[in-house]
Automatic annotation (TrEMBL):
GO terms for cellular component: membrane. GO terms for molecular function: carbohydrate transmembrane transporter activity; symporter activity. InterPro entries: MFS_dom (IPR020846), MFS_sugar_transport-like (IPR005828), MFS_trans_sf (IPR036259), STP/PLT_plant (IPR045262), Sugar/inositol_transpt (IPR003663), Sugar_transporter_CS (IPR005829). The keyword Membrane applies. The chain crosses the membrane at residues 31-57, 69-88, 100-122, 158-178, 190-210, 328-349, 355-376, 388-407, 427-447, 459-477. This is Major facilitator superfamily (MFS) profile domain-containing protein. PANTHER family: POLYOL TRANSPORTER 5, SOLUTE CARRIER FAMILY 2, FACILITATED GLUCOSE TRANSPORTER. It comes from Cucumis sativus (Cucumber). Belongs to the major facilitator superfamily. Sugar transporter (TC 2.A.1.1) family.
Amino acid sequence: MDRRKDEISPTSGLQIPLINPHNHKTNHFPFLCSLIASMASILVGYDIGVMSGAAIFIKEDFKISDVQVEVLVGIINLYSILAAAAAGRTSDRIGRRYTIVLAAGFFFVGAILMGFAPNYAFLMFGRFFAGAGIGYAPLAASVYTAEISSASSRGSLFTLQEVLINLGILLGYVSNYAFSKLPVHLGWRFMLGIGLVPSVFLAALVILVMPESPRWLIMQGRVGEAKQVLIKTSDSIEESLHRLVDIKNAVGIPPTCENDIGHVPKLSIHGSGIWKELFLHPTPAVRHIIITVVGLHFFLEATGTDAVLLYSPRIFEKAGITSPDEKLLATVGVGLTKTVFVLIATVLFDRIGRRPLVLASIGGQAISLMVLGTGLTIMEKSEERMRWAVGMCVATVLSDVAFYSIGMGPMGFVSSEYFPLKLRAQGMSVGVMVNRLVGAIVTMTFLSLYSAITIGGAFFLYAAVALLALVFFYVVLPETYGMNLESVEGVFGNLNWKSS
């Protein structure tokens, strides 16, 4: 039986299917809203992609060392941890919508400061604002997407963020190539400063087009407004009423409460109570969710994906590609590969499901990283350039990012569906903080790591982490695709979930 078509809400008891009959017209407005929210990810991806090439020119212009380059590239992750720690509470206080606008503002200020930076210290100051945007944007966008979409399309809409991150990375690589012909002191400034344009565009679209999340509105007691948003974002009136009843039950509003026009008491979503429910006195389901989300975000970064993206020109140089233009073009190939495979994931997440894609993704990464480590080791020990080894290294870099993009990458955003409504924003902030902390460690140590254990050894280490991740996901990750958002929590905390 197809659970997506026949599942009935356990809370409402209403016999309304989660997916509309074929004679109902599909509502594309939730796609538009999720697309706009996910546009913040273009800015996140652009910063990742553009810095891989800009760092080469910044090093030449400011005469800085490799260690300073590592700090410049990786410090943004530490900055984003501070922002992520505040982003969950901010999202609960001012709403998902205005948190995305705030993130766009941080990117705008960061782009201006970095573009006009007169020295290394001022550039680091600009990186702080860009880091704040990276801490705020993915969390707010993923929570908003979870709360605006229906069960039938939620997985595909989550992948929009990864699609647009990859588009941003690709645009960053293209920007590197386009502005590399300018004088050194101007090229990298254009690369970093041009990011202010999409930040203004994003803020305008969010304010003019996007409604607030209906689930956040209900937590604020604004049931009437939430009902109107649900009508706009559902395929039918029946589905909107079904979703409204489920959300009201999730926040403890009696189903018989007819106060849909005015306000009902506001749900407390601030303070230490949330953290107690997450860490001090979690239910078995919440404990399972926290373990899954923290582990997921740890392994997303610990397998070295950010190192591949940010240092791809150096990796290709070690692989035997010495021409600057060829290195930048190969890096553009990385961006294209990521974009193509995350588009494939967009189709598969609501057809195959989350669990098979994640297991295939991390398994493929483990194999790719082992072969890449072998190829780089051969190149290091060889005194001549072997074309087959160069080809193997390039191919395995591309296969690593392809496998990452088809499963692991989108799952960072999908994980926001795991948390119950009251814990969602601040629970996701924990995941983002872990993600950014591990990302900072990886990006700020990669050059030193491969100097200590060789570049091939570094990728053997990442391959070992990927194998550990494969075991972790096989043991703890349940399947949640096609489920009503308010029903997802019930899959966790059950020792027999794999057989259910």
